[in-house]
Design a protein that fits this description.
Distance between the termini: 27 Å
Shape: globular
Number of strands: 0
Strand content: under 5%
Structural class: mainly alpha
Length: about 290
């Protein structure tokens, strides 16, 4: 992959593809837990095939101390997907995605606790202003009439907390390469999602129409298998600030998809809130 394209192009492609996730998820009529499980299975199979063809072996002896963290991060990733998919069901793709992008703010606040880092005045400003942005996109003055919308935002924020957990776990994982890390995280997600789906929705794939099957394959193989590999491969090569800036292609594409393709509305306050969340989190990372 490194020979075919530059890390910058890989990150731009992965962020653009991530931004279209909600469009495809809307057409898959299975539970959020099922979708997360199938997504992990399809992606893991694709990466396993790639590792087999390229004759890459996972160095378990070298990474054995980090395997517990990998498994925990994989569990968090699986349930992160479930909450994000639930957010899509209750509110618009744009609002769900903007709520989800509160994750970098959570990481900023958690780092001083976990790594004894001090928060600067700039970081505190970004935290409070991004939080205000979340308040604006909830539309607090109209909660009684938009209960589902508010529930969707809560699911989005829950997904953000779990994604922040994945990011924090990965800070402790030093010896595992991107594609091996991704594969093991998907395996962990599969192991925990199988019993979860068994005790909740069960398997309902028979109810999918042809559009649903196509969208499911795209979400599992493209949005997850291919795109996660591009994403993690690019992060290893790019400076942190450049990666942070390019990562905001994802929510911008998601908002465009929501408004222009799905025809979902955004109020003026939600637009201002979204700009505050993305603007101040971006400022915090540059």
């Amino acid at each position: 992959m490194k020979r075919l394209m530059s890390p910058r192009i890989m990150l731009i492609i992965s962020m653009t593809v991530f931004g279209t996730l909600g469009l495809f998820v809307r057409n898959i009529s299975v539970s959020s837990g099922e979708l997360a499980l199938y997504r992990a299975i399809l992606a893991a199979l694709l990466i396993a095939a790639f590792l087999f063809i390229t004759k890459q072996k996972i160095p378990f002896r070298e990474i054995k101390r980090e395997i517990p963290l990998l498994l925990l991060s994989g569990v968090a990733m699986g349930f992160n997907w479930i909450l994000l998919f639930e957010a899509y069901k209750y509110t618009t793709v744009s609002v769900a995605t903007l709520s989800y992008y509160f994750a970098p703010v959570i990481v900023t606040v958690a780092c001083p606790i976990l790594f004894k880092e001090k928060m600067s005045a700039k970081q505190w400003i970004c935290f409070f202003m991004s939080t205000l942005g979340i308040v604006l996109i909830t539309g607090l003055g109209d909660l009684s009439a938009r209960n589902n919308h508010f529930i969707g935002i809560l699911f989005g924020l829950g997904a953000a907390c779990l994604y922040a957990t994945v990011v924090l776990f990965n800070k402790f994982i030093k010896k595992v390469e991107g594609i091996h890390r991704t594969f093991l995280q998907f395996i962990a997600a599969i192991l925990v999602l199988i019993p979860y789906v068994g005790f909740t929705s069960g398997v309902t794939l028979s109810g999918l129409n042809s559009t649903g099957w196509v969208c499911l394959l795209i979400v599992g193989l493209v949005h997850t298998g291919v795109t996660y590999c591009l994403y993690f491969s690019s992060l290893r090569e790019l400076p942190g600030q450049k990666a942070a800036i390019l990562s905001y292609i994802d929510p911008l594409v998601a908002v465009l998809v929501s408004v222009l393709i799905l025809g979902e509305d955004m109020t003026a306050m939600q637009i201002i809130g979204g700009v505050m969340i993305l603007g101040f989190t971006l400022w915090n990372e540059t």
